[in-house]
Amino acid sequence: MEELLQETDLMKLSNSTLDRLPEGVLRPQYDRTQLKPGIVHIGLGNFHRAHQAWYLHRLMQQGLALDWAIIGAGVRPYDTIMREKFLAQDCLTTLIELDPSSSTAEVIGSMIDYLPIEKGNGPLIERMAQPDIRIVAMTVTEGGYFIDPATKGFDQTHPDIVYDSQNPSTPRTAFGAIVEALRLRRADETGPFTCQCCDNLLGNGDVLRQTVVSLARLSDPELADWIDSNCSFPNAMVDSIVPATGPNELALVRELGIEDNVPVTHENFRQWIIKDDFCAGRPDWDKVGATFTNDVHSYEAMKIRILNGGHQVVSVPAEVLSVGTIADCMSHDLIGRLFTKVATEEIAPLVQPVSGMTPKDYVSLIHARFSNPKIVDTARRVAFDGSSRHPGFILPSIREGLANGTPIAGLALVEAAWARMCEGTREDGSTIEPNDPFWTVLNESAKAARKDPSAWLEMRQIYGDLVDAPRFADSFAHWLGLIWDNGLEAALSSYLDA
């Protein structure tokens, strides 16, 4: 890596410096002063900026969708820091595409404001209630939709949901803010907006509908019926590997000569499959590579089972074995082979092909994407929130494997490795810091499972009735015992050599 430029040599990213960006860095060709808002996006993480915001930016580069600019929003106190960073550089972001053979950089300008973060979410509610907002989108992580893990229904007992149902005009959650904004729009006859989920959930639009409508029903059943009948919640599959921003990413943008406190790195792959169900209009994202189709389910099932499931397959053992990144996992003899065998033999046979792609070919594609050494995506980031990701990405394949009589031993091994990870130490003796909203419960269960493996599977909020499925429970117990007796590498070798 070249020696970093001194801070005084860096060009501060802003509207006024766009015409002075370093040579080779692409920039907005549209007049940002002429942009008008059409979308409020809640949860301005890296993925959103490298995905939805990028697609919109690409349309704007063609002189299209100039009345669909994004207004950023958040609902938690820590979003205030992100807001300050964005506003200090006029809501611009540098995207750095990292391909094994090359890299490119582009500044995108499709976001034009970031709402204040206030208790009660007044500014967010007020802005969403305005008629120019036609889409409210969000990326709030898979575990943020108040889903009961056992029933997959709405968890109306969560303290934040109880609060919002009792205080609908000053809610804590994004969903409460959406409900209140829609109440105002209904009263003012402004009309509905589309609620667009951009998280990795099977049937993500259906999940968002369930959360919003169910929350509304707790305080105003008539409003809930109006939302259910008039708002749209399109299902979509979103895909691009986008690491968190850390010292490496900040160094890369500084090497370009740019001072940007919120840069994003991403792979040279994007996919966005969307059901064309937008009650108040939409940008023509299909003109820049998105696909509108009624068959979203097949695409999202392939991606969630193989890519998102595959991420758990490799990141969990990596944490136990002190392997740093996903690319490192793929070059690790045991973990890389684990992905290939589990994905090929236990996941892909349960996945339907989509236009132009078989499950087997998709496994090869994901193997190549995971192996990109320029994408510094840590195993710890990918293994985060396993209590949501395993039920969404791994357990469905186990259930179908049990129902269809296909192999599930490797998936059971992954679950045993997760139990080992949640015990809180790596095999080199270092500590695994809490990495899940329910870490205390997971940690206690993992420690108990060292003597009694069923203690882990008795977390029915995660595993449901899988504890009662002998083929899975026995395999899990076998692997967890082997891991504790002989080490994870011995267990992986045993599975791979079988």
UniProtKB/TrEMBL annotation:
Enzyme nomenclature, EC number: 1.1.1.67
- Could you list this entry's UniProt keywords, alphabetically sorted: Oxidoreductase
State any single GO MF term.
mannitol 2-dehydrogenase activity
Per UniProt, residues of the Mannitol dehydrogenase C-terminal domain are 295-480
The cross-references to Pfam families, in alphabetical order and at most eight, read: Mannitol_dh, Mannitol_dh_C
Q: In what residue span(s) does the Mannitol dehydrogenase N-terminal domain sit? A: 38-287
| Highest taxon above the source species | Bacteria
Q: Do you know which InterPro entries this protein is assigned to?
A: 6-PGluconate_DH-like_C_sf (IPR008927), 6PGD_dom2 (IPR013328), Mannitol_DH (IPR000669), Mannitol_DH/Oxidoreductase (IPR050988), Mannitol_DH_C (IPR013118), Mannitol_DH_N (IPR013131), NAD(P)-bd_dom_sf (IPR036291)
What name does this protein carry? Mannitol 2-dehydrogenase
Q: Which organism is it from?
A: Octadecabacter ascidiaceicola
